[in-house]
Amino acid sequence: MSTPAHQKTKLKKKSEAVVKMLEAGKISNKQLVFLIISILLSTTSIFLPSAIYQEVKQDAWMVIILVVLVTAAAAFVLALLGNRFQDSTIIQYSTKILGIPLGKVVGLLYIIYFIYINAIIFREFMDMITTSYMPETPSLVVCISLFIAVAYLVRSGIEVLSRVSEITIPVILLLLVVVIMMVLPEVKISNFKPVMETGLLEITKSIYVPLAFFLEIVTMLMLVPYVNKPAQVKRTFILGVVISGLFLLLIMFAVIGVFGNLVGSMNFSTLRVIKYIKLFNLIERVEPVIMLMWVYGISIKIAVFFYCSVLALAQWLNLREYKALVLPTGVIIITLSFIMWDSSMQLKTHVKTIAPFFIVVEIAIPAFLLGVSALRGIKGVRK
Amino acid sequence: MKRFKKLVKNITNKYTKANNKKLNNKGDKPGRKLFNDLDRNMDTAKDKLGRSMDLVVREFKVGHTRGALLCINGLVNKSIIDNHILETLMVHSREVEPNPVGDGKKLLQFIKNNTIAALQYEETHLLDDVLTKVLLGYTALYIDGLDSAVLINTIGFEMRAIEEPQTEAVVRGPREGFTENLQLNISMLRRKIRSPELRLESKTLGRFTGTPVCIAYIDGIVNEKIVEEVRERLQQVDIDGILESGYIEDFIEDAPYSIFPTVGNTEKPDVLAAKLLEGRVGILVDGTPMVLTVPYVFIETIQSSEDYYARWASGIVMRMLRILGILITTQLPALYVATISYNPEVMPTILVITVAASREGIPLPATAEMLILGLIFEILREAGIRQPRPVGQAVSIVGALVIGEAAMKSGLVSSPAVMVTVLTGIASFVAPAQGNVYVHVRLFLLFVSAVTGFLGFFIGNLVLLTHLVSLRSFGVPYMSPLGPSNYKGWKDVYLRVPMWAMIDRPGVINWKKQQRVNKNVNPGPPKNEIKKEK
Predict the structure, then answer these.
(1) What distance lies between CA B506 and its chain's CA centroid?
(2) Whole-prediction pTM value?
(3) A35 neighbourhood in chain B, CB within 8 Å
(4) Which of A40, A121, A261, A330 has the most other CB atoms within 10 Å of its CB?
(5) Domain boundaries, chain A
(6) B466 closest CB neighbour out of A28, A160, A166
(7) Residues B251 and B376 in one domain
(8) Count of A-B CB contacts under 8 Å
């Protein structure tokens, strides 16, 4: 079974060369935190509040705390895997760990996962824009204009992508805090009572949909080899999760505090909250601010998933360049986002049913890979 | 197809090779030597210079030997030649040494040692040397019977005095600006940085103009890689003439197709000195007061020398205003169009009613209104700049009246649109260095917001940001220290902290960590201050 030594080195060299050729950029751990916040916060902040509220009413904030704790633990496991293979992505080391046929299957699974999630986000974004802001604009226009920006971002490489996130995400977080401060006068504490009405069991049961969203952090396993200090990735992952969790908690607090029982029946409850802002008869209806936050947050999130899917595809097919894949992959994603669901309600229920599968891809497979690699004693090159 | 490509490659290869050969030959050729005979020498020199009307040849006698001076009228300082060369050669040498001084060589030695009362001279045997130096303003001294000439530095011509530059006016700070003369500019820089570490490297560019160019940097602060890169890029400049530093800028830019400049320029010695002290490299070009500085990052657009000369508090105010100005000049028209045509509900109710009332009966859509008014403003601005000052003022006043009063009263444009345009135009003067760049940005954003409202506006901004972030200037990311972020560098971005708090040089430009301020100095009254007892 053992391959000759010289062939082994040759193989190693080849894989390293592929990494170098595909993406020469380097990003800092700080930038990775911002990327994590962008993928964890931008969609969850729109969709999770009402989704969780429907399940557990006013105890929704507890669910988020629970989810953050579980995700932090999962992120730790993912970081261990990333740490073990600091020079390659999950697509590359899955073949190393499981052998060519099985490893390729796992790789394909991840490619499908990235594209699938991307299609979901595209659709969510379109629905939000067309229902809340521009009811007369065809969704295709929204979709394509977003796609142009995102494709440009992806083609510019991971360095540019992370720099953009580094500039925009802090502004978004700041705006979020300001907006929520403005809503504070409307918050009624009575909306949070009674505490634990549904019971701990219900709370634990309802965590899997938000968990599926939060475990999207698995995407970062595609970016670990491009990080400056891969050894510190554990801290980076957990920091990102905790920060996004805190902000989501803040949003949840505002939404429940303002609306109480109404949250369950709303589509975009966070958006509605913003409409409550009214200061000095001058600052009112600041929805464009929220739109700004989401356009930027979601663009970056889509770009990250898009980037990961093309990079994964290029690595899976052993290509020398990923830029040529941007347009075809984009066409597939946009088409999927149009044909898969008839309405946003269908999308919602669909996400609920598919969430367990996502969780398998997001944590079960990486944990399995980590276990097998530990048993077989396979390690990547440490930097 | 492949064959065709190969053919093209071959041809281009051949061409470039041949070209290189030609250039090399020109450089390597030893050139024609001078003759022994004065008359032949004079004739060839005159022929070579095409018997130009400004060529001056003065023949005279040193003792008993014939000699001649060759120079170009207008490039030389006549009083030096009259008093320190001609007089000493013709009169003094005879007084000191009444008898003839042996043969030509001894005579030349004597002249060099005893009679030429000028600081700088050199001897040459080559005609090419003589011609190039004479064209620079040197005077060539020929002695009959010698195959050599003495080139004496007599450069001196009329030039503009040092004045306050028009482009970077300040309330507080030095008023002097660079001139068109490279030597003077360099001396002005030297007077700012009196350190032996200031390095000035000379280069000549332009096949016909032979323009002297100088690379300036401070050894020990600058990143050597950047200097090396500057040298390499300047080496590649091959053009017939360089009349302004802009010619060079076009050749050494990182992003030639981008609308954003990746090479900075300044007209003031103090600004150049500050940039060199931060680790940048300056490129001084003869014939223009504009000095190039690299690497250039976006943040330099909002930095002005006065931020640092004024107290930090007012420095911060100025900087905030500049940021606001840039935001207004790029975003406001697009924001106006997106609001009016797509989501008017974002405005407060009273404002919506007011705006709607003033737009009543206006024949144009908001986008067209913005475009036309913007165009008129730009035309007025351009007309005002190129006209003589009194005329320019008249143009501005008439134009402003026409737009502001007549167009509005006649109901062609609405008053909010005029306000937006005027505010946009005025705000573009806040950061004058890139005033024209913002026209592109404004038009782009206006276009996307006209098509898809707020969504297009945000996405357009995202595309712009992506572009900005992807740029580099001599290896330095264009948007640093914002992205990639360097929070220490933020001391000099949105804010301007006091000088004693800006401890390190900007880490963006030189990767080495370098302190520029003594960390332990904190201004304030001394701790053991003696208090006056009442």
Answers:
(1) 22
(2) 0.86
(3) none
(4) A40
(5) 26-367
(6) A160
(7) no
(8) 90
Interchain contact, B462 vs A299, CB within 8 Å: yes
Q: Does B487 touch chain A (CB under 8 A)?
A: no
Q: What is the pLDDT of residue A2?
A: 42
Q: Are B464 and B452 in contact (CB under 8 A)?
A: no
Do B316 and B458 lie in a common domain? yes
CA distance A157 to chain B (A): 9
B478 touches chain A (CB under 8 A): no
pLDDT digits (tens, 9 = 90+) for B8-25: 666 555 555 544 444 444
Q: Which domain holds residue B84?
A: 38-153
What residues of chain B lie within 8 A of the CB of A145, using their CB?
448, 452, 455-456, 459
Q: How far is CA A326 from CA A47, A147, A306, in A?
A: 28, 10, 8
Domain count, chain B: 4
Q: A26-367 has which CATH code?
A: 1.20.1740.10
Note whether B123 and B245 are same-domain residues.
no
Q: For residues A272 and A24, is the Cβ–Cβ distance under 8 A?
A: no
Cross-chain residue pair B453–A134, CB shorter than 8 Å: yes
What count of residues does chain A have?
383
**8 Å CB contact of A292 and B458:** yes
Q: Are B349 and B448 within one domain?
A: yes
Burial class (CB in 10 A: 0-12, 13-18, 19+), A345: exposed
Residue B117 lies in a domain: yes
B159 three-class SS:
coil
Answer yes or no: do B106 and B141 share one domain: yes
B396 domain residue, yes or no = yes
* Cα–Cα distance for residue pair B116/B97, rounded to 1 Å: 15
ipTM of the complex: 0.89
Residues A170-188: tens digit of each pLDDT? 988 998 898 888 888 888 8
The secondary structure of B438-501 as a DSSP string is HHHHHHHHHHHHHHHHHHHHHHHHHHHHHHHHH-EETTEETTTTTTTT-GGGGGGTT----GGG
For residue B467, the chain A residues in CB contact (below 8 A) are 152
| B56 and B135 in a common domain | yes
**Is-contact B269 B178, C-beta < 8 A?**
yes
Residues B222 and B276 in one domain: yes
Q: Do both B263 and B243 map to the same domain? A: yes
Q: pLDDT: is B183 or B405 the higher one?
A: B183
